[in-house]
Design goal:
Helix content: 25-40%
Number of domains: 2
Structural class: alpha/beta
Number of helices: 15
Distance between the termini: 25 Å
Bound molecules: ligand TNX
CATH superfamily of the largest domain: Glycosidases
Length: 487
């Protein structure tokens, strides 16, 4: 039977027979023992930054890689090879060679619309890294909350973090929380990409800096969303707890804007060791075109001056971004020509793209009409099949692997209030994003919906064992593995 590996490796050869794993326990305990006892070479020349070879035979396990990250990914595959029959745990004997298609493989969590604790974030890190994702993007600020302590501006969290969407409890990360998140990410070979969203999505910033943020612009979008989901219209000076977007804007003409942006981006750049800082740039519907271009150019220049590579949502492709900046596409699989144009403009000026097509890997979309939470704006509900059956090179005409830095699944949290909800919306669709980011193009061996569906179904027991409260989508035949039914 095809091993239940997700994402599917570059090549898998089953060599016959099995390695029995002695003793009871859990898959992770079995994997830890096998990894400890494996024969390993982590300075082989030929495996690249993240690739590896993994061999399992009757005698044990051999891991080869050129880096510690490669060995880490070999261990994730090793754990996924573990299967179970009436005699206990075993691994099929196999020769595996593997390396990622894309360098950047991300998951985003919006902690602004609903605050999610550092421990929720840390558990997501471990689970995402097991799928070979290597970037955690934290959307730290939005209209509903400012979620990261800035030492030089304590007023940002003092005034801006008290609530969440729907009037739910707020919160923010202290610098210690950020340190714990960063350390957990490093242990899992992940970077943290902090996002401070400007010039729109800044209502919470305006609670402590009313001089820097314009009064809310009440457009059709906010009125329509308020009518549909309830809550009050945004008011200057009051926390916003609704679901509207696009009403807030930094003021380009305010004297203190640049100094505040320098302080904030400087601190978040220093808190996170990864190479990227995200400056948002999406849905600035209340900002004039000239002000938008000026503010995005300013923020991206400030980020570049911290030594980091700026990342911004695709709208920012219309502004002058520093060389080598990254734009993150959040349009549809059949993109609006204006969205595609902005991505192509950024790429033609030397930028790279992270793909987050909303009707495929926005993890906050409902699975189907009966989903108790989630949104539907991205082409209606997103089934597991739709989250899987697309290829990064087919989204935007003219954008191919050489322009694509990677793929990122995004979890917006207007309707997602706690850890169980995060898990149910992410799993299993986050596995689709992981396979799009890591594995060969759609149509390569095992890279089709039928194979993925079967492999994910057989990951169910391991996910249960790991305590993941996944959505048992009826699109998938979940392997029940009776020994774990009690979990
Ligand atoms: C669009 S995608 C947004 C977010 C919302 C999300 C909800 C993007 C860059 N902006 O502000 O939370 O839709 O799905």
């Amino acid at each position: 039977m095809t091993p239940a590996l997700v994402p599917w490796p570059t090549s898998v050869t089953l060599t016959g027979g099995a390695l029995r794993a002695e003793g009871a326990g859990t898959r992770s305990a079995v994997a830890a023992t096998l990894a400890r006892d494996a024969s390993r070479d982590t300075s082989a020349a030929e495996y690249g930054a993240e690739g590896y070879a993994l061999r399992v035979d009757g005698d044990g396990v051999v891991i080869e890689s050129s880096t510690a990250a490669g060995a880490f990914y070999a261990e994730q595959t090793l754990e996924q090879l573990i299967d179970r029959d009436d005699d206990g745990f075993f691994l099929p004997c196999a020769d595996i060679r593997d390396e990622p298609r894309f360098a950047y493989r991300g998951v985003m969590l919006d902690v602004a619309r609903h605050f999610h604790s550092a421990s929720t974030v840390i558990s997501l890190i471990g689970r995402a890294a097991a799928l070979k994702l290597n970037a955690l993007h934290l959307h730290l600020t939005d209209d509903q909350g400012w979620r990261v302590e800035i030492a030089s501006h304590p007023e940002l969290t003092e005034r801006g973090s008290s609530s969440s969407t729907g009037g739910d409890p707020g919160g923010f990360y202290t610098r210690d929380d950020v340190r714990l998140i960063v350390e957990a990410a490093e242990r899992h070979h992940m970077i943290v990409v902090p996002e401070i969203d400007v010039p729109g999505h800044t209502h919470a910033l305006g609670l402590s800096h009313p001089d820097l943020v314009a009064d809310p612009v009440i457009g059709e979008e906010v009125v329509a969303v308020t009518a549909e989901y309830g809550g009050e219209l945004p008011r200057a000076g009051a926390p916003y707890t609704g679901l509207g977007v696009g009403f807030s804007s930094l003021r380009a003409d305010a004297a203190g804007t640049e100094a505040l942006l320098r302080d904030v981006f400087g601190e978040v750049a220093a808190m996170t060791p990864g190479p990227y800082v995200h400056l948002g740039g999406d849905e600035a519907l209340g900002t004039s075109t000239d002000d938008y271009r000026a503010l995005v150019a300013l923020a991206s220049r400030i980020v570049a001056e911290t030594g980091k590579t700026p990342v911004a949502w695709h709208e920012a492709g219309d502004a002058d971004l520093p060389d080598g900046s990254v734009v993150q596409f959040w349009g549809l699989l059949d993109p609006d020509p204006e969205h595609a144009r902005r991505v192509i403009r950024a790429v033609s000026r030397g930028g790279q793209v992270v793909l987050s097509p909303a009707d495929a890997i926005y993890l906050d979309m409902k699975y189907d009409a009966s989903s108790p939470m989630g949104l539907t704006w991205a082409n209606g509900p997103t089934s597991v099949e739709r989250s899987y059956a697309w290829d990064p090179a087919d989204v935007i005409a003219g954008i191919t692997d050489e322009h694509i830095l990677g793929v990122e699944a995004a979890m917006w949290t207007e309707t997602i209030a706690d850890a169980a909800a995060v898990e149910a919306m992410a799993f299993p669709r986050i596995a689709s994003a992981a396979e799009a980011a890591w594995s060969r193009p759609l149509g390569s061996p095992q890279r089709d919906w039928a194979s993925f569906r079967a492999r994910v179904g057989r990951r169910g027991p391991a996910w249960r064992e790991a305590g993941i409260r996944f959505h048992a989508s009826p699109e998938i035949d979940w392997d029940q593995d009776s020994s774990y039914n009690q979990l």
